[in-house]
Structure formats: C-alpha cells, structure tokens
C-alpha cells in the first residue's frame, strides 16, 4: 500500500468520524449516516490494500 493511499484512507476515515460527530451533535441522521459510510469505505479500502500487500509479501518470499 502506497503512502499516498494510506494518507487518503486515513483522511477519509477522519472525515467520516467528523461527519458522524457533527451529525450526532446536530441531530442530523443523514450526516451521521454519511460519516459512518465514509468510515466503512475507508476501512474496506484499507483491508483490500492489506490483502494486496500480504499477497506481494508471499510472492516476494518465494522469489527471494
């Protein structure tokens, strides 16, 4: 996973947390749900990148 991808995912996750908190504070369920969705998307991207990294590590172990 590239550093830029990690930064984008972290930023999306933090943005989602902020939206969720703002939604809770203002009793705005749509904003709260949007924040939760952003967090879920960021976590899914991170999981996919972790799987990709693990596959690369296995490949590298056999080629070294």
Task: Give a description of the structure.
By secondary structure, the chain is an all-alpha fold. It has a domain at 16-54. The protein contains 2 helices and no strands. It is rod-shaped, with a radius of gyration of 16 Å. The chain starts with a helix and ends with a helix.
Briefly characterize the structure.
This protein is mainly α.
Order of helices and strands: HH
Q: In percent, how much strand structure appears in the residues?
A: under 5%
Q: Tell me the overall shape.
A: rod-shaped
Number of strands: 0
Radius of gyration: 16 Å
Structural class: mainly alpha
Sketch the major β-sheet.
none
**End-to-end gap:** 20 Å
How would you state the average pLDDT, rounded?
A: 92
Keywords for this entry:
mainly alpha, rod-shaped, 92% helix
Summarize the helices and strands and which ones pair or pack.
Layout: H1 3-26, H2 29-63
